[in-house]
From TrEMBL:
It comes from Gossypium schwendimanii. InterPro entries: Protohaem_IX_farnesylTrfase (IPR006369), UbiA_prenyltransferase (IPR000537), UbiA_sf (IPR044878). Keywords: Heme biosynthesis, Membrane, Transferase, Transmembrane, Transmembrane helix. The lineage of its organism: Eukaryota, Viridiplantae, Streptophyta, Embryophyta, Tracheophyta. It is a multi-pass membrane protein. GO terms for biological process: heme A biosynthetic process. This is Heme O synthase. The chain crosses the membrane at residues 21-45, 92-109, 121-142, 148-168, 189-209, 215-237, 249-268.
Length: 336
């Protein structure tokens, strides 16, 4: 359900003014089917491992309630159907992302769990793709604005699964999995990795505001909840006990729904009415062929003007003055 929720959130964020409810339902349904296929294949490949773990030994395959051929048939059918649904009702980009994520999860991440601890980071990539899929299904493209929620999912998964791997390290060892926490007897590196990735979440609220995805209130709310999960991670780093790890795990469970809800509630869409209500809000940009020029009182002087969408309007993402892109022109906001 988490995969479907993140995909649906990505769809709404990429929809602009009007959300196509039918398209949203098709996207969520297709995502759910592909995710079911990936999870089924994961359990097919890990029958013997799951049978050795307390938390997974009662799953349908290791417990013998479902035969392996039936599971393979189900996984293949629902995976193909979900991809076809996305291709027909959304677009080929969304279908391609879904199919790629299925392959990455079932045929890369799953075997990697028994080979190298880097599997956690590969799994984080898998978890970050569904919101990008939703954005692509709604907008038909992948843009920088659409990477904010996937980035949050990626960085969030690291402390979430580090806490889980620490709490269940004996179970993972029994199952034959190579988790990061198993090579860290003191838990210090595990806690440090979790805390560091919590800190990476801090700028996302500002970036969402600066790129025009959400209002300034989301920037504030995102900072508050990110500092909260960071505090839980830092507490675990200072005192590496099961209690502190569980507290960080619960904090991660709370963080994601609050973050996504805030992003949806405070999202900004391109509203044409704002252009009429705030015609004087401008950004001075370097001249380029598509720009509109206006004559001032002196015909010898002309100024390139870009009209923004209201008091909360922001520059297009290609002109946002954000740290990773220092080579782009920096706009100056001017009231006239």
């Amino acid at each position: 359900m988490l995969v479907v929720a993140t995909s649906g959130t990505g769809y709404v964020l990429g929809s602009g003014n009007a959300v196509d409810l039918a398209g949203l339902c098709y996207t969520c349904a297709g995502t759910m089917m592909v995710a079911a296929s990936a999870n089924s294949l994961n359990q097919v490949f890990e029958i013997n491992n799951d049978a050795k773990m307390k938390r997974t030994r009662l799953r349908p395959l290791p417990s013998g309630r479902i035969a392996k051929p039936h599971a393979v048939t189900w996984a293949s059918s629902v995976g193909f159907a979900g991809t076809a649904l996305l291709a027909c009702k959304a677009n080929m980009l969304a279908a391609g992302l879904a199919a790629s994520n299925l392959v990455l999860y079932a045929f890369v991440y799953t075997p990697l769990k028994q080979i190298h601890p880097v599997n956690t980071w590969v799994g984080a990539v898998v978890g970050a793709i569904p919101p990008l899929l939703g954005w692509a299904a709604a907008s038909g493209q992948i843009s920088l604005n659409g990477l904010i929620l996937p980035a949050a999912l990626y960085f969030w998964q690291i402390p979430h699964f580090m806490a889980l791997a620490y709490l269940c390290r004996d179970d993972y060892a029994a199952g034959g999995y190579r988790m990061f926490s198993l090579a860290d007897a003191s838990g210090r590196r595990t806690a440090a990795v979790a805390f560091r990735n919590c800190l990476y979440l801090i700028p996302l609220g500002f970036i969402a505001y600066d790129w025009g995805v959400a209002s300034g209130w989301f920037c504030v709310e995102s900072s508050v909840i990110t500092l909260a999960i960071s505090a839980a991670a830092f507490s675990f780093y200072r005192d590496r006990t099961t209690q502190k790890a569980r507290r960080m795990f619960y904090a991660s469970l709370l963080y994601l729904p609050v973050f996504m809800s805030g992003l949806l509630f405070h999202r900004l869409s391109d509203n044409p009415q704002c252009l009429a209500e705030n015609p004087n809000r401008i950004i001075e940009l370097p001249s380029f062929p598509e720009a509109v020029t206006e004559s001032e009182e002196d015909d010898q002087k002309k100024k390139v003007r870009y009209v923004t969408a209201g008091p909360q309007g922001r520059a297009p993402v290609a002109y946002a003055s954000i740290a990773p892109f220092p080579f782009l022109p920096v706009p100056s906001y001017v009231d006239q």
